[in-house]
Amino acid sequence: MNNLNSEHAIGIFDSGIGGLTVLREIKRLLPQEHIIYLGDTARVPYGTRSAQTVLKYSIANTDFLLRQNIKLLVIACNTASAVATDALRERYAIPVIEVITPGARGAVRSTRSRKVGIIGTETTIKSNAYQKAIRALNPQIEVFTRPCPLFVPLAEEGWCDPQDEIVRLTALRYLEELQGHGIDTLVLGCTHYPLLKGVIQKVMGDPVTLIDSAEETAREVEKLLEENGLLRAQTGKGTCSFFVTDIPHRFIETGKLFLGKEIETVQLIDIL
Ligand code: DGL
């Protein structure tokens, strides 16, 4: 294991570009931190694969990030968070932050009706990770779930406009079965989904609060770094380095939608 040092970067991985929504919030809160982001674009999507396969990919991603001397690992993918967190924490000595617990915490704080909806990939929903996390915080909350697999390719394609019929009808088909349960809070349990916030809000209606775990995750990163004396001293802006396992130009094109700004350089790596 590398010696943890506050000057080292925060390592983040996702199956593709979804984790950029988490990176954006971390950067907003901690602009001085260096960040190394790995998008496993050769193997996206994770959400339709088995837990064992996602774990195997998560280990390869973490091994790569550790070779870059990171001080903290952020699993910016709900699917990998749901099925790989325990194994990664056991395997590596580095602090690991996942995105499920922060999302569950946000939902518990938000709900008044004690009825919460969760949308995510098939593997995330099947893992019951959100139910477990919410139940641990408040066993009285009822949880309703729905996998929305087509949301990931829509977001990767940049098809997110709520006025677009394909986008609207896809959202309607998935979300209509969540309506009528009295849900007042819906967790966007996939890091790709914040891009579809507009259409999801439109279909669910304004009284439903959408929970995007990115902000809460960023606060958790700050807290953990602080507790471990690993916050980088405020000496100007930190750097962001991007790595992908396939087709960098696609990551650059769609990535700006997720990040809200241009990505200049992306390096192609081979960890397969
Ligand atoms: N971003 C991933 C997540 O949060 C999902 C995308 C995928 O299926 O790879 O679950």
What this model shows, in words?
By secondary structure, the chain is an alpha/beta fold. 44% of the residues lie in helices and 17% in strands. The chain contains eleven helices and ten strands. It has helices at 20-29, 51-67, 78-91, 100-110, 122-127, 129-137, 151-157, 165-175, 197-204, 213-227, 248-259; strands at residues 9-14, 35-39, 70-75, 96-97, 115-120, 142-147, 185-189, 209-211, 240-244, 266-268. The strands form two sheets. A six-stranded parallel beta sheet has the order 4-3-1-2-9-10, sandwiched between helices. It has a four-stranded parallel beta sheet with strand order 6-5-7-8, with helices on both faces. Helix 1 links the parallel strand 1 (9-14) and strand 2 (35-39). Helix 1 packs across helix 10 (213-227). The protein binds D-glutamic acid. Residues 14-15, 18, 44-47, 77-79, 121, 124, 152, 190-192 line the site of D-glutamic acid (DGL).
As a whole number of angstroms, the C-alpha radius of gyration is 18 Å
H/I helix tally:
11
**CATH fold name of the largest domain:** Rossmann fold
Look at the structure and give the CATH class of the largest domain.
Alpha Beta
The mean pLDDT is: 94
> How many structural domains?
2
SSE pattern: EHEHEHEHEHHEHHEHEHEHE
Helicity range: 40-55%
- Terminal Cα span: 22 Å
Shape: globular
- Give the class from helix and strand content and strand pairing: alpha/beta
Strand neighbour order, sheet with most strands? 4-3-1-2-9-10
Task: Note the main attributes of this structure.
alpha/beta; Rossmann fold; six-stranded parallel β-sheet; four-stranded parallel β-sheet; 11 helices; 17% strand; binds D-glutamic acid
